[in-house]
Amino acid sequence: MVMRRVSHHTMPTRREVERALKQISQKSSFGSHTELLHMQLLGHGMHRVAFHVRFQARPDPGNLSGEHVILYPYPEEAQDLKVRLRRESKALRLLAQVNPIFRFPKLIDDVEVGDSVVLYEKYVEGVPLDLRVGRCMVGHPWEVVGEIAARVHDLEAVAQNLDGFATRREHALHTIEVLRGTGESTFDRAYEWCQAHIPDEGLPTTLIHGDLSGQNILVHPEGLLAPAIIGLDLYLTR
Predict the structure, then answer these.
(1) pTM (2 decimals)?
(2) Taking CA atoms, which of 72, 128, 133, 179 is between 20 and 30 Å from 64?
(3) Are residues 108 and 187 in the same domain?
């Protein structure tokens, strides 16, 4: 999660977070009594904000209670993000079925609050990966990043169960459209380079993360747990 605030974005309120948690509890048919015990800001992303919450539901056969994370879109972004966040939710459920070697946020549930698709996830332990050579606690930092990227790309079976692009070529052509028509020579050259390196026809789609920076990779200080990837919003895609 990128730790910066976008000035024109409106922060979700505690009342809105409580409403989302209650709707998740009701959706799961659990919890005649629900209570938000603690709520702490984790960070501001480009499109949503993350809260560390301690929530209690009684009864609780679905394990909704405990220390978890709420990912709540900014109201200004919510409507445009619906389809992509639904795909993220589905991707997390599919990842839980294949059990990859890296850790990732386990989705408890999602709910639609007004225009917002809100995700409720288990809290992932770890500290951000320090990409500076000599300061990484788990070996060479770029080897860690490269290994995680490769393992994400291996998950073709997950990608093909998402409603995304049919081929890598289709995805690439769609993505580089943002470079067109800007009037900037740098973007024009970038677009020409991308056109010259478009993937071949027929290559199967797979998952990409798109932002494997240090704050999105969590490692155990003593190396006792596998690295975890977070910040999956908008990046798990076909």
Answers:
(1) 0.80
(2) 128
(3) no
